[in-house]
Design brief:
Length: 426
């Protein structure tokens, strides 16, 4: 976390040459700067947790390593095993999977399921300390301030509030395909819909996104209309001319909706194979599925894979595992030079280093970059769901199988029509 900066290296050489900042002491004759940093040491320590890699450095009962919870620590009673037991003891190094039977016998059911939901990289990279308060594990002053506020409230200095739903709400708002300034300006509107209980636009938007699950397109139209109302109000107030209407802003989103429906699979360049991957999850069954389809530049199927994962992973985590499965499957077949393609924009951008990966999949992304050199992946590509149907169908079919199912130069019946549609449409 800034360990390569000049300031960090100077302070480390002076005050903590043999340890890290978390275990540093104030020392003798400290400077004002160092005194100030040490004052915030407890706060930094509060916001850190381990990101599981191979588990060798993480103590099961003492360290913070669970992805959720108020303490990130295991709360299940320690009935057996030593206090020094490592997370590595819960991982099968040969299959790079959790030892589910051990977890079920060791932890309470909810903590066993929570542990199983942590995706492990096939490369089992080293464990890493990350900042738990941000999505990408990077420290920010803003997140530290939020942590201070939450700690202040939890000690009885204010009303406690679970901000999980609120964070989910704003995450949905900022992910809408609209200008951020439109969402921010519209959230300031005060209005009372005739058939609703909302008294502000934010309340109305909450109802659409969190309760009615209206979808991105309808919610985007709602925000853009509200933004135009707000803009017109300001123009009238200041005596300015306002010729445009809300429909002028809504129309581009109607066009975009139509564009999405015509996104097709595109063959890979000559000499390269196309590795399409997708993931699916079945929360009621605590299962997930992975589908991999490998084709040549003419769209002819070379191989396909259908895999079931016995863990209740999140959507993003199972998508990342699907990308990893595609790489491993191609390596197993001895393929060289290919394009890895899926419909997760977050994972795709992370692999292309266009964005920081979320902490939950960062280890997998790093592992895929290591594995890609074995296969010779020359590009990572993103495609919409409509252009990734064969892999999606296989991922959904995974719940029907017990073990991995592999097809070599043989077309699975369930994706025959989807494969033909891709070739005819390309």
């Amino acid at each position: 976390m800034g360990g390569n900066s000049l300031v960090y290296r100077v302070l480390k050489a002076r005050y903590f040459p043999t340890c890290d900042f978390i275990h540093a002491s104030i020392g003798n004759n400290p400077s004002y700067t160092w005194r100030s940093l040490i004052f915030a040491q407890s706060l930094v320590n509060e916001g850190l947790r381990w990101r599981v890699g191979n588990g060798a450095n993480i103590k099961v009962w003492q360290d913070k390593w669970l992805p959720w919870g108020s303490t990130y620590r295991v709360t299940s009673p320690r009935l057996f095993l030593s206090l020094d037991t490592r997370v590595a003891d819960l991982i099968d190094p040969h299959t790079t999977r959790w030892k589910n039977e051990v977890l079920d016998g060791l932890f309470l059911s909810y903590e066993a399921d929570l542990t199983k939901s942590i995706p492990l990289s096939a490369t089992l990279l080293a464990d890493k300390v990350v900042w738990a308060v941000t999505n990408n594990g990077k420290f920010t002053v803003r997140s530290a301030y939020k942590l201070v506020v939450s700690m202040f409230k939890s000690k009885g200095h204010g009303t406690t509030f679970d901000g999980t739903l609120l964070r989910r709400f704003w995450k949905k708002v900022w992910s809408l395909p609209i200008p951020h300034k439109a969402a921010w300006a519209a959230s300031k509107l005060n209005l009372l819909p005739p058939d609703a209980n909302a008294v502000t636009f934010q309340d109305l938007l909450w109802h659409e996104l969190m309760i009615a699950d209206a979808g991105d397109m309808k919610s985007s139209q709602l925000v853009m209309i509200a933004w135009k109302l707000w803009c017109n109000r300001n123009e009238i107030y200041h005596g300015e001319k306002h010729d445009s209407t809300a429909s002028d802003l809504v129309q581009p989103f109607d066009d975009r909706k139509n564009d999405v429906q015509h996104s097709d699979w595109v063959p890979s360049p000559s000499g390269l194979c196309k590795i399409n991957v997708d993931g699916a999850f079945f929360p009621t069954k605590k299962l997930a599925g992975i589908g991999v389809v490998i084709r040549d530049q003419q769209g002819r199927l070379f191989a396909a894979l259908c895999r079931k994962i016995r863990a209740q992973m999140g959507v993003l985590e199972i998508e990342a595992k699907a990308y990893e499965a595609g790489i491993l499957f191609a390596r197993h077949l001895g393929l060289k030079n290919g394009v890895l393609e899926g419909d997760s924009l977050i994972v795709s951008n992370a692999l292309k280093q266009a964005a920081q990966p979320p902490t939950s999949v960062a280890a997998i992304v790093e592992g895929i970059n290591v594995l890609s050199s074995d296969v010779g992946v020359v590009a990572y590509s993103h495609v919409r769901r409509t252009g990734n149907k064969p892999a999606h169908i296989l991922a959904r079919q995974a719940q029907s199988f017990v073990n991995d199912v592999i097809w070599i130069e043989e077309i699975p019946c369930c994706i025959q029509q989807a494969l033909a549609h891709d070739v005819l449409g390309s």
